[in-house]
Amino acid sequence: MPRKVDHKLRREAFLAAAYRTIKKKGLEGVTFRAVAREAGFTTGALVHYVDSIDKLLVESSEYAARYVRDDMEAMEALPDRLESLRQVIYLSLPLDEERRGNWNFWMGFWERSVRNATVRKLTHTRYGEWLGRLEHLIRMAQEAGDLADDIDVKRATKTCVALVDGIAAQTLRSGYPLSADEQRKIMDDWIVAALRPTRPLSAERIERPRRPRSNGSHPREAELAKAV
Amino acid sequence: MPRKVDHKLRREAFLAAAYRTIKKKGLEGVTFRAVAREAGFTTGALVHYVDSIDKLLVESSEYAARYVRDDMEAMEALPDRLESLRQVIYLSLPLDEERRGNWNFWMGFWERSVRNATVRKLTHTRYGEWLGRLEHLIRMAQEAGDLADDIDVKRATKTCVALVDGIAAQTLRSGYPLSADEQRKIMDDWIVAALRPTRPLSAERIERPRRPRSNGSHPREAELAKAV
DNA sequence: ACCCTTTCGAAACAGGCGTATAATATAACA
DNA sequence: TGTTATATTATACGCCTGTTTCGAAAGGGT
């Protein structure tokens, strides 16, 4: 009965558009009108797929989190526990344009969560996930004998999260951005000084698997291409 | 000819009201109407003292920075270079309600600076000041022989700023706030592990001088009190 | 052929925003 | 006792927001 449109797919297109909008303009600039324009539709169409701005924010954050999680799980599967930890930390840093956008997105939630209960709840959930993931990794590395065994894992976790958050803030907001090398060096230094690994960190760089990520595209373009 | 009102004083009262509003509601909630209401006036009166919202933000940030700077300069005057550094770092942490308010204020600037050039410029200036102040302190401590002398001061400075920013973000936004003790322990651990002091950190607590700070008051109340 | 449901655009609504303007109150000076 | 400059309120304007409403287009089921 409907116009032949894959509901779920189009919905995703709107979430992707919301994500792109936030990356570009910050969370303050996310309006129904802006997201709809970014997606190539009008507000009416957008509202058809998502009820409220709050839900749009929540779902677009879940959309964004999926990819990050996938990358992280790949790194967690590495046999080397120490390297596994280090690579997951690297994945959380604002090293390249894509991840800086991700951080722009995330930092928007920091401010929005002051006044918006829905966003606040979501922010807390994501923090909980991230703290849990990191604590588990540190504990695994410790149990594998890769780290000194007198380390306070919980405090180390919080310190690491703080360091990463702070690097992101400084890189994206201070006007004195840290280069990718600098960011990695800071985290390596911290790992060595605070976690005291029982063996040196590997010197070679592990490249992140680069999945195709149709993120910059305009949903309407694909549609047009198919029509031709 | 004017109604006997100290222009400069009333202006300050509005800046204080702006500061209180931001502390409470975050920077997104700062509007002419909200600030005027907080001060006990109407928007017209506020506009009479400050031209635009941008300038209000800039000036209220300077208002806030004054007090912090005063405290820090007091600690910088300590004879013990190592303790001086440590106490200034402590002053920058969200340890108590007052400073958490301060951080709420500051983090508002992070988001606002994405879209607002005036706020962005100001944020960069403040970061520059803070980085410079901290770098100077670390260098002084190193030259006094209190720190290992093979430390990369610039990188240590950036790391310290990141750690403090991250502690603030985690404490105010994550839903898993760090206690005052935890914050101090994290920073002490970092000082020991990363800066490698040549003597142990002092165990006793130095209390911050508590100046009277008429910050919570309603400007209209003082006026009324004087009238009676 | 007709209906019925989904998709989408266009427009309108109330409310909040920054800002401008006019009117009123008030104190100091002539 | 006016006159005048300032402080303050009240109100209005235009813009943008989230959200709602209405209507047109489109295709499958009967």
Could you characterize what this model shows?
- 2 copies of one chain form a homodimer.
- The first copy, chain A, has 228 residues and is mainly alpha-helical.
- Chain A contains 10 helices and no strands.
- Chain A has helices at 7-25, 32-39, 43-49, 53-76, 81-91, 97-115, 117-143, 153-173, 180-195, 219-227.
- The longest helix of chain A is centred in the middle third of the chain and has 27 residues, at 117-143.
- The two termini of chain A are 24 Å apart.
- The model of chain A is unreliable at 224-228 (pLDDT under 50).
- The A-B interface holds A 25-29, 104, 107-108, 110-115, 120, 123-124, 127-128, 131, 155, 158-159, 161-167, 169-170, 173-176, 178, 182, 185-186, 189-190, 193-194 and B 25-29, 104, 107-115, 120, 123-124, 127-128, 131, 155, 158-159, 161-167, 169-170, 173-176, 178, 182, 185-186, 189-190, 193-194.
- Chain A binds a DNA duplex (30 and 30 nucleotides) through residues 1-5, 7, 10, 31-33, 41-45, 47-48, 51-53.
Secondary structure layout:
Two copies of one chain form a homodimer.
Chain A: H1 7-25, H2 32-39, H3 43-49, H4 53-76, H5 81-91, H6 97-115, H7 117-143, H8 153-173, H9 180-195, H10 219-227
Helix pairs in contact in A: 1-2, 1-4, 1-6, 2-3, 4-5, 4-7, 5-7, 6-7, 7-8, 8-9
The structure holds a DNA duplex (30 and 30 nucleotides).
